[in-house]
Amino acid sequence: MADYEPLSWGVVSGNVNLVKAETKALINACINPLDIINNGLVAGMTTVGIRFKKGEMFVPEVLMSSKAMMAGMDLVKPLLTGKRMPKLGKVIMGTVQGDLHDIGKNLVAILLENGGFEVVNIGTDIPPEKFVQSLQEEKPDIIGISALLTTTMYKLKDTIKLIRKENEKVYIIVGGAPITENFAREIGADGYAPDGIQAVDVCKKLLKVH
């Protein structure tokens, strides 16, 4: 029986070299690539999420863990030809019009991908019409919108209003430094996440997946 614990620990500790070595060892042992991903890499990021929530890990460490996980994914992905990786759902990510900040949004996108979601990152300074266009083209389950400035956070309401006019069923989550859960509720969002780890949980709860 394969031992995935060293690989998971490599992800948790953000040790890229360890993750590469353990991933290669499992590949050489002819372990199913999807098992390597789910039981080793994803399991490690799940532990990272739990520790982050408890205040035992912080954003820089989460980024290191994400980098380590992606190093393992890069080795496994070529083996998945002909095998469709199961996705929990599709998420469009973008920063609201007038806001050029993208570090937080990009971190959320990375963590969502690591958590099993397909992510379409449409960038920063996105007008409401562009969100609607992406909705029509990509047909996502969830749209994630960030605003990092008090001067741009109020544009979230207009963006959500236009999206709802096009599609009332798509879920919308929001986040960013000035955003609160009460504000998210007031502007009609379905969910609010103060950080990337919680964004993954919110998306899973909305889609009722694990």
Question: Mind explaining what this structure looks like?
Answer:
With 210 residues, this protein is an alpha/beta fold. It has two domains: 4-79, Methionine synthase domain (Methyltransferase, Methionine Synthase (B12-binding Domains), Chain A, domain 1, Orthogonal Bundle); 89-207, Cobalamin-binding domain (Rossmann fold, 3-Layer(aba) Sandwich), CATH 3.40.50. Helix content is 54%, strand content 13%. The chain contains nine helices and five strands; from the N terminus they run H-H-H-H-E-H-E-H-E-H-E-H-E-H. The protein has a five-stranded parallel sheet, with helices on both faces. The chain starts with a helix and ends with a helix.
Write the layout of secondary structure elements.
Layout: H1 5-12, H2 16-28, H3 33-53, H4 59-76, E1 90-96, H5 103-114, E2 118-126, H6 128-138, E3 142-146, H7 155-166, E4 171-175, H8 181-186, E5 191-192, H9 196-207
Parallel strand pairs: 1-2, 1-3, 3-4, 4-5
Helix pairs in contact: 1-2, 1-3, 2-4, 3-4, 4-5, 5-9, 6-7
In short:
With 210 residues, this protein is of the alpha/beta class. It has helices at residues 5-12, 16-28, 33-53, 59-76, 103-114, 128-138, 155-166, 181-186, 196-207; strands at 90-96, 118-126, 142-146, 171-175, 191-192.
Output mean pLDDT: 91
Number of strands: 5
Biggest beta sheet summary: 5 strands, parallel
Helical percentage: 40-55%
- Strand content is 5-15%
The CATH superfamily of the largest domain is Cobalamin-binding domain
CATH fold topology of the largest domain: Rossmann fold
Name the assembly state.
Answer: single chain
Please identify the top-level CATH class of the largest domain. Answer: Alpha Beta
